[in-house]
Design goal:
The strands form nine sheets. Strands 13, 14, 15, 20, 23, 24, 31, 34 and 35 form a nine-stranded mixed beta sheet that branches. The chain has a six-stranded mixed beta sheet with strand order 3-2-1-4-11-12. It contains 19 helices and 35 strands. Helix 6 crosses helix 7 and helix 12 packs across helix 14. Helix content is 33%, strand content 26%. By secondary structure, it is of the alpha+beta class. Its EC number is 3.5.2.9. GO terms for molecular function: 5-oxoprolinase (ATP-hydrolyzing) activity. It holds the Pfam family Hydant_A_C. One of its GO terms (cellular component) is cytosol.
């Protein structure tokens, strides 16, 4: 087997991990290069080649595939930096995307905002009204054409949309998932007028019931599809020119990759690819460490993302939310907020301090980069607080200037709030930790789990600087910072070890008892589609696993719970087992006795998830044991660091490269890694394990241990 490369393109940094044919791992981190992120990808490949003492051409010639994940599409959606697109729907239904089924007032909101009804408001619209048009047609719920598509009217509507200068159009008609005939004809009519216009059909992007969610999913996929298509085609061309022999794959929200040539058609599936890569990496690392319940957290330059692993398996979802809009994408359950290292600190009209969601990104970057950025960011605050070294980031490859950070915080935050620069920096750090802690609370506590049963895995360039604080915020007892050869490029490691995952689904509502023949036909059609698509991925697969699912709900309810379905020929008893499994899962989520079978049970969406196993086996190297637990010999320097109410404290800074298995680090302390900085706060302790990871015992753990001792 040849080499495998995982590349995570963030809004600020591009990370890469290479797994050689013999299992050895190498990593690289380099600044991202907007607007042409492909330059940063090639920079990362060059750094990997240097690590292996090879030329780029020789490296790529022996590479089986590159698994690529990017947050650029997600960042664009989160920050609203997407181009205008056209939208065509059934006459009389245009306003569904503005009415939003009332969901716009509550989707994605934390609990305290839900309780403040007066302050609630809908998010900004995702399509200007002048670009949302209607056509005469009607298909009923059984897929029967009731009113034929008025093609003359459709041509005029298309002409008017294109006259506004849009280069992409989303088409989402009523009941199109039962019969896509009219949507496909509209695509033909659009391409008659302009063959180069990007077109997305809801029957292909989101073939599910419920109009508003299908519309929003298709529109957002259309907003990012053309840019993704152009980027990937140009990147693949550059890699081929440099000698890439294997395939270029793109990570999806589902936890697996897809061929780059097919990614744009379902662009919305790629928006959570980077964190799902991190979740996949956590699963592989947890197999080594023995952890079963994990909160995977990634603090990049732009976003903070978090996902769950329960009993060794990633928590999956059939949808997600972006900017209070529903997105119908099968995904590993991931939540994201704009609270990364480059998140900009600002003050609202009421004098309240906020951090994010807007990011300084790679260009111009935080003020301390000296590249023209004038807004204070998390990174600037961490530099002022002493968490980051003044010698620069990336082992000194990225110079930073503390005086610029001080000036940005002084003028934009400290003086308006009547604080010192140091107090303002500490406030930024505290707000960052509080809002990331809130997100963890939402995904753990609000889904019925106890944080004390979990371990936080923290990665990303800025994650290790904040992880102990946000873990303690929700009562998690231990944090694992995956270091060793992957360090802050952990998501890229997950990309490299991920498999091919293809998902096909189709809404076909039916009530219990489910019709076995109709159910079997649904699954067989979806399975055939998955297996055919597997052949187009361009990589040798060890084998293909097929998983069946049905989204079910009780009568008079709107939300579904996903349950597995047996393979092979379906019978009434086998389907009843899936229904019983749905009821068990429902009770676990919402409490024993909360289900009400007498209301009826509905099967809504049938889904097949195909996993093309690539069988990559990384070699986790172990560290030598330390001669003693005392890591004093690894102290690089000491510097004043502010991590709490005690202000600046003389703090040891440890050189990670000198630490060994068994070393115990008592906080307050900083562990300096070439690609990141790990904070061990006062009252906490960090232990280096046999694989080179830093395991931080938070105050919650220390309190629990003290209680156990007192009881003993």
């Amino acid at each position: 087997m040849g080499h495998v490369i995982g590349i995570d393109v963030g809004g600020t940094f591009t990370d890469a991990v290479l797994i050689a044919g013999d299992g050895r791992m190498f990593s690289a981190k380099t600044p991202s290069t907007p607007p042409d992120y492909g330059v940063g990808v090639l920079d990362a490949v060059e750094l990997l080649a240097k690590e292996m003492d090879l030329g780029v051409e020789a490296l790529l010639a022996d590479t089986d595939y590159i698994a690529h994940g990017t947050t650029s599409s997600l960042n664009a959606l989160v920050m609203g930096k997407v181009p205008d697109v056209g939208f065509i729907t059934t006459k009389g239904h245009r306003d569904s995307i503005y009415i939003m089924n009332v969901e716009g007032r509550y989707l994605g909101r934390p609990q305290h905002e839900l309780q403040d009804i007066i302050q609630q408001d809908k998010p900004r619209t995702i399509v200007p009204r002048k670009l949302a048009r209607e056509v005469t047609e009607r298909i009923d719920r059984d897929g029967t054409v009731i009113v034929k598509l008025d093609e003359g009217e459709a041509r005029q509507v298309i002409r008017e949309i294109l006259s506004e200068g849009v280069r992409a159009i989303a088409v989402s008609l009523l009941w199109s998932f039962r019969n896509p005939e009219h949507e496909r004809r509209l695509r033909d009519l659009i391409h008659e007028q302009d063959p180069e216009v990007f077109v997305a059909l809801s029957s292909e992007v989101s073939p599910r019931i419920r109009e508003f969610a299908r519309n929003s999913t298709t529109i957002m996929s259309t907003q990012i599809g053309p840019g993704l298509e152009l980027y990937l085609s140009q990147l693949e061309g550059k890699l081929r020119d440099r000698g890439l022999r294997g395939s270029l794959l793109v990570m999806q929200s589902s936890g697996g990759s897809i061929a780059a040539s097919e990614a744009a058609a379902s662009a919305i599936t790629t928006i959570g690819g980077v964190l799902t890569g991190g979740v996949v990496g956590c699963v592989r690392m947890a197999e080594q460490l023995g952890d079963r319940n994990i909160i995977a957290t990634d603090v990049g330059g732009t976003t903070f993302l978090a996902g769950l692993i329960v009993d060794g398996e990633p928590v999956r979802a059939s949808d997600t939310i972006v900017n209070q809009h529903p997105v119908n994408v099968p995904t590993l359950r991931v939540e994201a907020i704009g609270s990364g290292g480059g998140a900009i600190a600002w003050i609202d009209s009421g004098g309240n301090l906020h951090v994010g969601p807007t990011s300084a990104q790679a260009a111009p970057g935080p003020a301390c980069y000296g590249a023209g950025g004038a807004e204070p960011t998390n990174t600037d605050a961490n530099l002022v607080l002493g968490i980051l070294p003044e010698t620069g980031l990336l082992g000194g490859l990225r110079p930073i200037r503390k005086n610029l950070a001080i000036e940005a915080i002084r003028t934009r935050i400290a003086e308006p709030l009547g604080l010192s620069v140091e107090e303002a920096a500490a406030a930024i750090y505290a707000v960052q930790n509080a809002q990331t802690g809130d997100l963890l609370r939402k995904i753990v506590v609000e889904t019925g789990h106890d944080p004390r049963d979990f371990t936080v895995y923290a990665f990303g360039g800025a994650g290790p600087a904040h992880c102990a604080a946000y873990a303690a915020e929700v009562g998690v007892a231990e944090v694992v910072v995956p270091l060793g050869p992957v360090a802050s490029a952990f998501s890229a490691f997950g990309l490299a070890v991920s498999d091919i995952v293809l998902v096909r689904e189709h809404s076909d509502p039916m009530t219990v008892p489910f019709d076995p023949q109709r159910s079997q036909q649904n699954f067989e059609r979806l399975e055939a589609d998955v297996l055919e698509a597997m052949q187009r991925q361009g990589v040798p697969l060890d084998h293909v696993e097929i998983h069946r699912e049905i989204d079910m709900r009780y009568g008079l309810q709107l939300s579904e719970v996903t349950s597995p379905v047996a393979r092979g020929a379906l019978t009434g008893p086998l389907l009843e087992e899936s229904v019983a499994d749905f009821e068990r899962r429902y009770a676990k989520l919402y409490g024993e006795g909360s289900g009400f079978r007498e209301a009826g049970i509905y099967g809504i969406t049938f889904r097949v998830r195909g996993v093309g196993v690539l069988n990559v086996e990384p070699k986790f190297e172990t560290l030598d044991d330390a001669p003693s637990h005392d890591p004093a010999s690894a102290i690089l320097t000491r510097r004043p660091v502010c991590l709490g109410r005690d202000g600046y404290v003389d703090t040891p800074v440890y050189d990670y490269r000198l630490l060994r298995s068994g070393h115990a680090i008592q906080g307050p302390a900083i562990v300096q890694v070439p690609t990141t900085s790990v904070v061990v706060p006062d009252g906490m302790r960090g232990l280096i394990d046999g694989f080179g990871n830093l395991r931080i015992q938070t105050r919650a753990n220390i309190i629990n241990l003290s209680a156990q001792r007192s009881v003993a």
